[in-house]
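Hi D.,

Good news: the full-assembly prediction came through. Inputs first.
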Amino acid sequence: MRMLTEKFLENVADALDIFNEEREISLDPRVIFLTTIFLTIFFSFNKRIWVSILGILLSLLLGIILNVKLVRLLKLAGLLALFTTIITLPAIFIGSGDGLYLNLVIVDVWVSLEGIFSAFSLVLRTLAAGMVSAVFLSYLGWRNIIIALRGLHVPAKLVLMVVLFMKLLPIQIRLFARRLFARESRLLTKSLRNLWFFLASILGDMIIFSEYFALRLALGLRSRNFDLSVELDYKYRMGPKDLLLLVTCVVFVSIFSVI
Amino acid sequence: MEPIIEVQNVSYSYGGEIVALENVSIKVPKGSVTVILGPNGSGKTTLLLICAGLLRPQKGKVLFEGEDIFTSSRNVRSEIGIVFQDPDDQLFNLTVYEEISFGLKQLGFSREAIRKRVEEIARKLAIMHLLNRNPFKLSYGEKKLVVLASILATNPEVLILDEPTANLSNYYREKITEIIREYKKVEKTTIIATHDEIFGLENADHLYLLNSGRIVAGGSVVDILREPDILEEVGMSHPKKILEKLRRILNIVDT
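Then the structure:
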């Protein structure tokens, strides 16, 4: 049990580290960021399953071309699929038309084909949008995301919050795992009820302490000369490659909106 | 000697309730090793964070070469490097290489200059083999050296170390002592906060004793050692007492 929780949390942290990579890129970070937003919105609002599948395949292809760590991308995809499936599960019980009755001993439930289709479509949409944005943001890396946001005149405070969020989340999940095991090591009872209460109480702890952790991280960043004004020294240059990327993106979205 | 950092009548409290520092004044001479000695919870970390310009005192001033650290137009922060007590608070990159190069990137160094500097520092601290490792998965001592390397990489004028020897084995302790001595050789300044009296007395040029947020005494190591009661007052042991304890242990071994 412990190994499973430990592995799960470690993999969640590792998947979220996809945005913490650092890269030297030749394209204008603002253009990549805008392309990301454009494509993410397109795949989020698209309702056709085959376009969502195309989005997933496209993100994998881009991941290979842009040299993004595929293992991290797949872990993130797995996480997205898991959470979206849990959220969309009730949808299979909604809907009319064809379906089947399931006799679950104490209750009969109606599972509709329409519901299954809606749930599946939503999971694929989330996966496509999430993976496409993850590929581009991972290619950018956290430092270039700051440069892109500042270049797009996003307020410095907001950018700092984004950076803190990207950096803090994996650290906090690892800390969460450590605290969970610390509690587990002090458990003297085998009662499942007590075990559940004892371990669940960690959530309150994490919420209360998250402010403190964020403060420590902010101090840690500042102690290492991190200052958003330094990033503003970056020279933004929009070249032919940037224009080509934007045009390709617009053409892609236009074609697949019409087909 | 001219002070490089001067703390003038500084007071600080957390949430307006817990008083961490009360009317503290210290002078840190340029090129010296200044040690702040005090028991746990005496306010040492708060004083260091204020000296580094990371915490703003509610009362008093902090001067860096005569200029107010919080209002100066100079980029004072880049001239002061601080190593926190807990290395986990300062590690946030995916590899040791990225950790060490983080500060250099902020200061706008070229890629080649960064590589050279990172390798130079890693070699000095004998952590070349860790450069591609994930810093979160290192041992405590290794993490501490990585943070120290990341701060030394930017070559700050003042190096601030918070409890540098806490929970460290002798190997890492010696390594840190070596760095402090090298720093002094090139006439750079070091401020150390510690509750390890032997380490403090061994390295200090100037010593301040801090207790319950107040400076109890200050001066050279000889001045402090001449008055054993002062050390006792802040819960520290005089080296003579430590020696007595060691003798007793050795006697047991001999008999």
